Protein 1
Amino acid sequence: MSIVRSVCFLALGVLAISSMCIMIQNHLTVESVNDQENLQPSRHHVLSLGQEDDDVLVFVHISDLHISAFTAKDRYEQLNEFCNINLKAINPGLVIASGDLTDSVTPDNLVVDQFIEEWAMYKALYTICQNVSSVPHWLDLRGNHDNFNINGYNSPNNYYPKFGSQRLHPSGSYMTTIETNNKTKYAFIAVDATLDIGSKRLLNFVGQLDDTRLLKLQELDQAASKLNVNATIWFGHYPSSIILTYGILPGLRHVAAKGIAYLCGHLHTFSGLIPHMYSNHHSGMLELELADWKHNRMYRVAVIDQGLFSFADIQHKTWPVIVVTNPKPLLTVQPSKEPVELMATSTHIRIFIFSPLPINSCEVKLDEGSWQPCKRSGQKHPLYTAPWQPELYSKGLHVLQVRARDSSGSEMLSKIEFALDDTKPRFPLSARITLMLDFTAMSKVLFAVSIILCTLPFCIIRRLQLRIIQRKMTVLRIRTSCIRLWVRKFWVFASINRLLFPFLAYTVYLTFGPWFIAHFVEDRVGVLFVWGTLFDDGLYLPGTTTYFYCAIHVIFFNMLLVIILAHTADVRYQEKILKKGTDSRTMCRKITSCFPISIFLIFHGITCLIFWQSYGYLSMLVNPARSWSLILAFYLWLTAKRLDTPQLTLAVKTWN
C-alpha cells in the first residue's frame, strides 16, 4: 500500500512540474499571428518603398531620467545637452518620457520624498527641449519614483499635476494623435500604472491596473480605432510583466493587442544583465524596454517609415545614429500589424542617418558582398537609400551592414539581420522571461514553494516517526554516509517539540499574519500582510512585491535557521546519546560553535534596518515577521544548545 501511495505522489509531482513547464513554454513561445482583429484598418495607406520620405514619422523615447537636485549634476547637464544637440539633430515629431522623471531620493540614499526643486528642474528641461529644438509634442507620465510618498493623485506633494507636460490629464492615461500627411496618422497611448497610494520604498516596484483604469484604456483604444489611425504605439513606465491586474477585465496585453509596440522602462536592464530587453507577445505586439538615462545615458530613436516600425537604442554622444527601416530588422517584423510585404517589392534599401554634422559617406553591405555607396534622397528627413534586388534575398536569414561617417570623422557601423520569408525571430530567453512572465504570479509561486519546503518535509518526518513508534514501519536505513548525516540532523530536529512547533508556527504565521505596522505614506499608518496592505481608513492595496520579498525572507531566514537548529540539535544528540565529542568541547570549540548563529543574527539585524530607513521606527518596534523573529531565532538556538536526554527520546526510538 505504501508503494502505491509513493507512486501516486510521484506521478502527481511529475504532472504538476510538467504542467508548470507547459505553462511557462506557452508564455515564452513567440508565434506568428494572423488575427484579423489585431490588424490596423488603414495599414495599406502607404507608398512603395523607394526613395520618397513623404510618409515618415520620427520620434524619440527616453526613460528613467532620475533628475536629482542633490546628486549627479552631470546627469542633468547631459540632459540639457541632449535637448540642445541630439533633439535638434534628430528633429523628432515627438518625445516620449516614460517615467521616473525625478529621483526623489536624498543624498544619503535613505529618505524618499517628492522635492519641488527636482520637478522645477524637469519642467525647465522639457521647456528648453520644446523651445530650442522645436519639439512639437513632449509626452510624459509618472514612474514609481515620481509616486514616492504620495497620498493619492490630489496629494499636495504630488507635483506632476503642477509640473508635468501632460498635467491636464488627471487620469494619468491619455492619447495623442500625430499626422504625417493627410492620409497617415498614428495614435500614442500613455499607460499610467502607478499606485493610487504611492508608498515609500520596497512596496511600489510593481504597477497596478484596476477595472477603472483598464476601462479608460479600452476607451482610448476604441477612440484610436474610430479615428482610423494607421497604427498605435503604447507606452508606460512599467513593463507589462511588472503590472498587477486585478478585477474582472483582462489585462494590459489584451487591451493593447492592436498596438504595434509597447514602450517601457523601469528595469534599468537589470544592471546590465539584459542590455536588449525586447520581446513579442502572442498578439504580435512588440514590448521594448529601454535602458535608463540615469546610469547608462540611453535613449531610443524610432522611425515609422510608410507603416514599417524600426528603432535603434543609442547611448548619448554616439554619432552618427543609424536606423534601418527597409529591410526591417527581423526582431521588429510584425506581419499582422505592418505592411511587411512591401519589403519584397521595394526598390531601395532605406536608412535614416542622424548627426549634428554633415554626413560625408554612407555605405551598405549585404551578406558577404562588397560595400556599395548610398546617397541622401530624403527631402524632409535624413533618408539615405541604395538600390537593391530583394528577390536575391527572398529565402532565409541575411545580414545587412551600414557604415556612416560624419564630417568630424566619427564613424558608426550598424548590423542587422533580416528575412523576406516567414523566418521567425529569436528573442533572447532572458528578455522573454523578464517581459512575458507575470512577476506577481511567479512571486506567489516562489513564496508558496518556499513555505512548503519549510513545513512539509518536517511534517512528513514527524509522521514517519509516529509510524515507527506505532510499529507500522521499520527504522530507516540509509547507507550513503553524507545523506545519512543530513537526514539524521533534520530527523532529530523534527523529533523535538520545543523546536519544531515554534518553527512551524512562525512559518505558517508568515502566510496569514501581519508582518509589520508602519507609516507607508507620511502620516498614514498601514498593516502589511504578504497578501496586501491595509490602511487605517480601510483602503486595501493588493500584495505584489510582498510575495517576492517574503519568499526571499523564507529562503534566507527560515531555511538557514532550520539548518543551524538541526545541526545544533544533532550535536547535542551525539553528545548525550552517542557519547561523541564530549571530551573535545574546549573553550575554543564552544566559541566557534556560536559563529553560525552570530553571523545569522547580525546579517538579519542589519537587513532589518531597511525598514527603519524606509518607514521609520514604528516598523522596527512592531515587526513580528522580522525584528521579533530575531528574538525567536536566538531562543530556539539556546533551546537546541541546552537539549538534554529527555527531549531526545523520540529521536532515540526512531533513529538507528
Note: The two ends are 24 Å apart (CA to CA).
Protein 2
Amino acid sequence: RDHQLVFQRRREQVMRLTTLSACNLNQWAMDFEGNLRRVKESIARTRKASGRYRCGPELEITGYGCEDHFLEMDTFEHAWEALAELIVEGFTDDLLVDVGMPVYHRGASFNCRVVCHNRKVVLIRPKQILADDGNYREPRWFRPWPANRALESFILPQIVAKIDGQATCPIGDAIIQCNDASIAFETCEELFAIEPTSIRYYLSGVDIISNGSGSHHNLRKLNNRVELLRSATTKSGGCYLYSNQIGCDGGRLYYDGSAMVMMNGDCFAQAKQFSISDEVEVVTALVDLDEVESYRVARASSAAQAARGSYQIDRISVDFNICSDKSGSLSASQRTTLPKAIRYHTPEQEIAFGPASWLWDYLRRSGMNGFFLPLSGGADSSSTAAIVGCMCQLVVDACIEGNSGVLEDIRRVVMDPNYTPVDPRELAGRFFHTSFMSFKNHSSASTTELSRTLADQVGAYHINLDIFKAFEAIVDTFSAAFPDAKRPTFKAYGGSVAENLALQNIQARTRMVLAYLFAQLSLWARGTRGGLLVLGSANVDEGLRGYLTKYDCSAADINPIGGISKADLRRFLTWASKPKAEGGLGYPCLIDVVRAPPSAELEPITDSYTQTDEEDMGMTYDELTQYGRLRKLAHAGPVSMFRKLCHVWDHLTPEKVAEKVRTMARLFYVFFFLFLFC
C-alpha cells in the first residue's frame, strides 16, 4: 500500500508538503483548567498556521511535576475529562492532535502520548524508557511499556466513549499510517537513550517522529539535545518534532522550552529557550517530506539496514491527508520553510535568563508581592540580586512590547491596577527589597558600599540594618541561664573554637529571623500590603562542602543559585557587569564583587586577621568546583577522586592530594547525614 501511494504521487507530480507544529507550554502541576486552556490555544494557533499535526509536551494535561498526585486516580479522571472537552469542542476535527497525559491500563500507570483525530482516539502510545536519574523519579509513578509487548485494546472511559460511540482504542507501540505519510512517537527520555526508539522507526520508513518532552534546564543542555536530534535525523533521514514545557511547573526545576522542527539534520523552526512573555508558543514549519525519501535513497548503508526489515512495528491506518493536496506550484505564502541556524545562549546568559524566568513564573503564581534578599555584597547574594534585576528587565521589555499577560501579572504583584512599568530600576524599587545586615567590627566598609551600590544599580529598595543589638540580646539570654560561666567570646578575643563557631551561627541565624520579619512587614511599613518571598544565595559548591549554617539565610523560600558553582557565578558576574550595549546586564559594580576575596564576615576584623571563605574551608573554590564536578558529574567516590586529582593537580604530592580529598569526603558525608537525618 505504501508503494502504491508513492507511485500515485509520482504520477500526479504532487509534492508531499505538510505544515507541522511543535510548542512550548507553560503548564502547572494539577492546574487542569489552565493547562487545558493553553493546550486549546496551541491547537488554535496550529490551525491558524494551516498546521496538519500538532505535538504537545509531556504530561501537558496534568503538568509534569504532579509527583505523588500521579498515585491518585482523581488525576487520571481529570485528565480524561480534559481530553473529552478537547474532543467535544472540535479541537481534533480535521487535525492530528497529539497530547501528553497519564493513562491507567490493566493494573499499571503509564506516561502516554494520546493521539486523536476527528473526535476519535486513534492511539495511546505509552513511554517505553522512563527517566530515573538526577531530578527525575518517573518509576515511582509510572511503568515502562515493554518494547516487545503487543498492541492491546484499551477500554475508553465513558466520558470519552459516549462522545462518538468509540468504546476502545489501541494502546502500545505503533506507527500512525496516514494516506500520504507515517508518524511515530517518542517521549522525552527515549531521545536520550543508548538505543533510541527513533532508530527503529526511521528504519521502518517512518517520515515524522514527534517527541513530547518535560525536560528541565541544565547549563548547555540545549546543545546536547540538538546534537541528539541532529544525529537521529542525519543518520537515518526524517522529520523530527520536539515539544517541551517552559516555566517552573510549581517546583524547583525550570523547563526550558526550545520546541523545534528538524529534518535531515537541519533546523526549520525553533522556539524560545527562556521566556516570561509566552505561556503558549507554537512554531510551525512547512516541509517537503519527499526530501526525506531523497535523503534516504542516497545513503546506501542506512538503506541496506532498512531493507533487512528487522523491526516489525504495527501500523494503524488513519484516513487523513497530513500533506497538502496542492500541486507542486506554490504561491509565495506557501513557500517551504528554509533551514536556519540554531540559537544558543552563552553559559552566562543561561545563568541570567533561566533563573530569572523561573523566579518570575514562581512569583506571579505564588500570590506574593515581591522578594526580600539579605544582600551582603559578596558574590553569591550579588548574583541573586543581579538575576532579580535581569527579571525586572525582562518584565519591562515584555510590557513595552505590549504583552498583556505580563502586564496583568505585574499589576497584581504590585497591587496597582493602573501601573505600567517602563523602567527596570523603578519596577525593582516597588517589589524587590534588600538589606545589608551589618555587624560591628565584622562588616567591612567595602562590602557595605558594594551592597548599597548594587542595590542602587538594580533599583532595589535597600536598608542598612545593624544586627549587633539583636546578637547581644541573644548572648545575654544565654549568659543569664549560665551565670557562673564566662560570657562566650570570639576566637580573636581569646574564645575557644566552640564559642567562636556558636557566635558565628547566632549572627547567621539572626539574619534569617530578621529576613522573614522584614519579608512579612516591609510592605506594611511602606504603607501598602502583601508579603515578600525570601531569597537565598547559597551556591552548590558550599552545599557540597557543608560551608553554611543550618537555618541561616540558606533556609530561604527559594534559592535561584542553588545549582550553580562558584566558578560559574564568577563568570556570570563578570558578564553581568558589562553595559547592556555590550550584551551584559549593566551593573558595573559587579566586577568589584568578583575581585573581592569571598568572606562570610562572621568574625571580628583585626589588624592581623580577616576571615576568608577559602581559609575557613581549607580549600580554594577552584578545588571545590573540581570536587563537585567529580562527585556530581563523574560520580566519583573518594578513591576515584584521589586517582583523578593526582593527575589534575600534578603540582601537589599524592599525600597532599589524599589529605584534601579525605577532608572533603569527611565534610560531605557529615553534612549529608546532618541535613538528612537531623
Note: Residues 326-332 have pLDDT under 50 and may be disordered.
